[in-house]
């Protein structure tokens, strides 16, 4: 299912009809895999209401209390809250005609979110939205690529440059003294939650870069990395939390 999930994020998604086939009882994978697949599909793409209804009806079949291990569908509640937030944002942005109006609308939106998913829940929503890529390279990969290849970029201008070989220099190295060749080794550490998609995206870049120069090696780490099951468990906890304080407790 990793390849399917990566395809949903990085490539042209399958049709709603094909997605519905992927989550049918006779299809490969566990009910948990199919629920997670649908969540990623819905988070990354606009799903028509009738298609979402058909898929969720199929998933509800796995939640039958009489089954041996009924599927917990609490994550769907969180998904609906998230999609509602997207619609509200879209409407407010459309109606806003000035910067002041936009700031006011965003304030109203955040007030709404505070009463539904809490402050930390809002951060999670924003984080999920920011992780959804618009092309094949994720934001962290674009940043690493610019730094590894010494490209001029406004995104890398705020980073400090140190060279241990220049022992006489104190503090950051002046731009004129920097080496201009590309780097072949890099270490990326994310302060906070990391994920396997970012890791794989960086490895894909390393493979591409290795074709035009020496072998490029990139190590990736983060404060924590959730597995597919842990990701689903966190969304389920958020789906069960009716108040902001409960959401904060679910995230701790």
Structure description:
- The protein has 252 residues and is mainly α.
- Among the domains are: 2-71, no CATH class; 139-229, Sec1/Munc18 (SM) protein, domain 2 (Rossmann fold, 3-Layer(aba) Sandwich), CATH 3.40.50.
- It has helices at residues 2-10, 16-22, 31-44, 49-60, 74-95, 99-114, 118-131, 139-148, 196-210, 228-240, 244-251; strands at 185-194, 217-225.
- Strands 1-2 form a two-stranded parallel sheet.
- Helix 2 (16-22) packs parallel to helix 4.
- The longest helix is centred in the middle third of the chain and has 22 residues, at 74-95.
- The two termini are 28 Å apart.
Task: List the main descriptive attributes of the protein structure presented here.
two-stranded parallel ribbon; single chain; mainly alpha; 2 strands; Rossmann fold; Sec1-like_dom2; disordered C terminus; 252 residues
SSE map:
Layout: H1 2-10, H2 16-22, H3 31-44, H4 49-60, H5 74-95, H6 99-114, H7 118-131, H8 139-148, E1 185-194, H9 196-210, E2 217-225, H10 228-240, H11 244-251
Short structural summary:
The protein is mainly alpha-helical and 252 residues long. The protein contains eleven helices and two strands, in the order ααααααααβαβαα. Helix 8 packs parallel to helix 9 and helix 10 packs antiparallel against helix 11.
């Amino acid at each position: 299912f990793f390849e399917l999930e990566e395809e949903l994020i990085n490539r042209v998604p399958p049709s709603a009809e094909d997605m519905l086939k992927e989550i049918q009882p006779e299809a490969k994978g566990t009910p948990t895999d199919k629920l997670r697949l649908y969540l990623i599909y819905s988070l990354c793409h606009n799903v028509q209401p009738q298609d979402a209804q058909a898929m969720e009806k199929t998933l509800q079949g796995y939640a039958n209390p009489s089954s041996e291990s009924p599927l917990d569908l609490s994550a769907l509640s969180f998904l609906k809250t998230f999609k509602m937030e997207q619609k509200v944002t879209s409407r407010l942005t459309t109606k806003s005609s000035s910067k002041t109006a936009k700031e006011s609308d965003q304030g109203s939106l955040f007030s709404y979110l505070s009463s539904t998913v809490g402050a930390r829940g809002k951060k999670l929503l924003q984080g999920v939205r920011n992780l959804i890529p618009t092309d094949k390279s994720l934001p962290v990969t674009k940043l690493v690529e610019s730094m590894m290849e010494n490209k001029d970029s406004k995104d890398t201008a705020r980073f400090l440059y140190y060279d241990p070989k220049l022992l006489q220099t104190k503090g950051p190295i002046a731009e004129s003294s920097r080496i201009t060749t590309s780097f072949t080794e890099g270490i990326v550490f994310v302060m906070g939650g990391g994920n396997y998609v970012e890791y794989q995206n960086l490895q894909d870049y390393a493979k591409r870069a290795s074709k035009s120069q020496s072998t490029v090696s990139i190590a990736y780490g983060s404060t924590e990395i959730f597995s597919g099951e842990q990701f689903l468990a966190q969304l389920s906890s958020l789906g069960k939390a009716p108040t902001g304080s409960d959401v904060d407790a679910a995230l701790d």
